[in-house]
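Problem 12. The chain below contains 181 residues. Write out its predicted structure in token notation.
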Amino acid sequence: MSDEPEDFDLEAMLRALPQPRDHHYGFAHMALPSVVFALGASIDLERMAADLDFFRGLWTEAAQKMNADPLPHDGLGARYVRDGELDAVIVTMPEAQFASEAIMTAIVRRTTRRWLLFARRELRYLTLEVGVSMTEDGRLAGRRTVLGEWTQQPSHFNYGDGPPPAEDAFAQAAFAKCRER
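Solution.
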């Protein structure tokens, strides 16, 4: 018997984790960001947040287009929030169950004024995802949240541990990330 830790195969361990559901993952990571970026930074976010039918329709359409097993839209919601030069729609997802499924997403717009008449608007799309914690020897230690972002290109960035899965905490984390640059 050796005192050395056994080597573990990270790829095999990751393959053993339950995979995200296509419909849930595809809506939050593909369908919604692509529609948001296509609409552009001039969109009325407050109006968007008030239109739950928009999100429900996109939810249904996403399952059809991806040929995924449809999931109910229970829990899908949206709320408009504002903090200074930032405003956002926080989208609460149906219950996320597996790693990389989004718990919430944030459509964040930053408006900066230039002179008196001109404004520059930047649109960002952040996610609060289910993540897993690992022990040093590669065993699952529990569930955590991960803060991520999708860009228009599309590219995905993982920023590490996220806030608790509460709308206000996520909104503040999303605003803080958008103020960084």
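Discussion. The two ends are 52 Å apart (CA to CA). Students who got a different answer should revisit the alignment rule from Section 12.3.
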